[in-house]
Amino acid sequence: MTSDTFLKGKTAVITGGTRGIGLAIAKGLASHGCSVVICGRSQKPVDEAVAAIRDTANGGSKVAGMPADVSNYESVVEFFRYADDELGGIDIVVNNAGIGIFKKTSELTVEDWRQTIGLNLDGVFYVTKEALGRFQKQSGGGYLFQISSLAAKNPFAGGAAYNASKFGLNGFSEALMLDHRQDNVRVTSIMPGSVSTEFSPGGSTKGADWKIAPEDISDIVLSLLRLPGRTLVSRVEVRPAKPPKA
Ligand code: NAD
Question: What is the value of pTM for the model shown?
Answer without folding.
Answer: 0.97
